[in-house]
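User: I've been trying to design a sequence by hand for this structure and keep getting stuck. Would you show me what you'd pick, starting by listing the structure so we're on the same page?

Assistant: Good idea, let's start from the same input. This is the structure you sent:
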């Protein structure tokens, strides 16, 4: 039986949607592993370079789309600043406040992604950095195999 153009397009869209859904599931599983390692995480999110959230585990304190867009912009600004100052590429960025800490990592993937993690002020910053860095590495390795 010959497929019509519409059927072919719908098949491609369904395939693309399934691929994106399966990626979302894999990313969410990795974020859950990170949260198991560091239960004090309030929010952890993976987003695209254009600020679109792909997966998140969050406490509902903010809009994930807005946070994803701001996180990527902040990390990109840090990377640009490091280049302008003739430093090596920025490995990560942090925001530390009296109420909590945020760390941002660039995930090395065919299309760059941003990983944001936030924890309360009572969480050790070094633990937050290590857990988030490891999570970014696992996600990068996972995407390299796909």
């Amino acid at each position: 039986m010959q497929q019509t153009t519409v059927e072919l397009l719908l098949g491609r869209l369904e395939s693309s949607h399934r691929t994106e859904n399966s990626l979302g599931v894999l990313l969410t599983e990795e974020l859950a592993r990170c949260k198991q390692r560091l239960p004090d995480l309030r929010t952890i999110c993976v987003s695209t370079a254009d600020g679109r959230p792909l997966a998140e585990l969050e406490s509902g304190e903010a809009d994930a789309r807005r946070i994803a867009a701001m996180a990527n912009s902040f990390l990109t600004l840090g990377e640009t600043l490091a280049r302008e100052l003739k430093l090596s590429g920025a490995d990560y960025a942090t925001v530390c406040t009296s109420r909590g800490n945020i760390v941002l990592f660039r995930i090395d993937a065919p299309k760059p992604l941003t990983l944001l993690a936030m924890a309360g002020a009572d969480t050790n910053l070094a633990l937050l950095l290590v857990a988030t860095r490891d999570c970014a590495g696992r996600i990068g390795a996972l995407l390299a195999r796909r």
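That's my pick for every position. To get oriented when you compare it with your attempt: The beta strands are 41-48, 53-57, 92-97, 100-107, 113-120. The longest helix spans residues 5-37.
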